[in-house]
Structure formats: structure tokens, C-alpha cells
Write a structure and sequence with these properties.
Blueprint lengths: L11 H11 L11 E6 L2 E6 L2 H17 L5 H14 L5 H17 L1 H12 L13 H4 L3 H8 L9 H34 L1
Antiparallel strand pairs: 1-2
Length: about 190
């Protein structure tokens, strides 16, 4: 196992600063009017809504705790991990993670599967019963890892595999619907 970037002794607020610097996020982008999703060379802006900000603050801490990067593969992994451990009532987190899961199914299937299974093994995550406040930021990475049971080795059960299959099926249904719609539009435009 490689040496963690975010050691257990680091306070969350200090680990976040390392994370922001490493991935060139000015203060996490929390004060920006828009956030951007990069698809190839294209940056697509989306409004930085209050619900997205609430979710991304916990999402960023999840990156620290799991050591998943903020690059494509790492976003796929954290998306799978968060879906597996749940996103609570944060619809935007479910939605964005579903996008990452969809991409990961085709680009990084093994990493996606492993991260999903790791997410099934945690006790909980920060989307449940946590507040993003000074108290949380002053805790250490190690305290939160231990509390959430991140890295604890457990054997996955049949339900975990079935739950993964359910999410794969959702992606395939989404893809089939997209292809059907695309073909229908092409057919209709060729008729005119």
C-alpha cells in the first residue's frame, strides 16, 4: 500500500488545503458562480447551486478520506463509493455520481467495481448526520476514517453484488434510452 497523501494526523481543514492546491481548486471553488465539468478539451459550466455546494464540501472530504484523486479515474471511484455508501437526500450528489458511475462503467470498470465494494463496507459517510462546520474541519483525517470505518476489511455479501448490478442496469437502461432517442431524432430529421 502506498503512503497516504492525507495522513491520519492531518486536520481536515489542512488536508483540504493540500487537496485544493494539488488539484488547482481555488478554495475549493466554493465561492465561484459556476463549476465546470471537463469532457475532453471542452469545459461545460453549470451553476454552483446551494445544494451542489452542500454536497461538494462533503464530497471533497470523502476524497481525502478514501485517497481517491480528483482526476477522471478518481472521480469515477469516489462516485461509485458515494453511491454504494449512499448520498442521503442530496439529489445533486446522486445525479453527479451517476454520471461518474456511467463513465466509469466503460472507462474504468475494475476500479469502479472495487470502489463500489469499498463503499458498501463503510459504516456511513458524511452525507448522513454531519454538518460542514468548524467542528468537522478541526477533526483529523484518522478520526473520521475510523469513525466511518474506511479501510476496514469486510467481506462483501450477495446484496452488495446485486446492488452493484442494479446500478449497472440503470446505466445500461439510460444508454438504451439515449440511443433510442438519438436514432428517433435522426430518423425524423431524415424524413423531413
Amino acid at each position: 500500500m502506498q503512503t497516504p497523501i492525507y495522513s491520519n494526523e492531518l486536520k481536515i481543514e489542512d488536508a483540504l488545503q493540500i487537496y485544493f492546491t494539488k488539484y488547482h481548486f481555488a478554495e475549493g471553488g466554493y465561492n465561484d458562480k459556476y463549476f465546470k465539468i471537463k469532457i475532453g478539451p471542452i469545459l461545460i459550466p453549470f451553476p454552483n447551486s446551494k445544494s451542489r455546494l452542500k454536497a461538494v464540501k462533503f464530497h471533497d472530504i470523502h476524497h481525502l478520506l478514501t485517497e481517491y484523486t480528483a482526476l477522471w479515474k478518481g472521480e469515477v471511484e469516489i462516485g461509485a463509493w458515494e453511491i454504494a455508501s449512499g448520498c442521503g437526500n442530496l439529489f445533486i450528489a446522486w445525479f453527479l455520481n451517476f454520471g461518474s458511475f456511467s463513465i466509469g462503467l466503460f472507462l474504468y470498470p475494475k476500479s469502479l467495481f472495487n470502489a463500489f465494494m469499498d463503499g458498501r463496507n463503510v459504516k456511513t459517510n458524511l452525507y448522513y448526520n454531519y454538518s460542514y462546520d468548524k467542528k468537522l474541519l478541526s477533526r483529523t483525517v484518522g478520526e473520521l476514517r475510523k469513525e466511518l470505518e474506511i479501510g476496514k476489511i469486510k467481506k462483501n455479501n450477495l446484496f452488495d453484488y446485486a446492488y452493484f448490478a442494479f446500478w449497472v442496469l440503470l446505466v445500461l437502461v439510460e444508454l438504451a434510452m439515449f440511443l433510442f432517442l438519438f436514432c428517433t431524432i435522426i430518423k425524423l430529421t431524415s424524413l423531413s
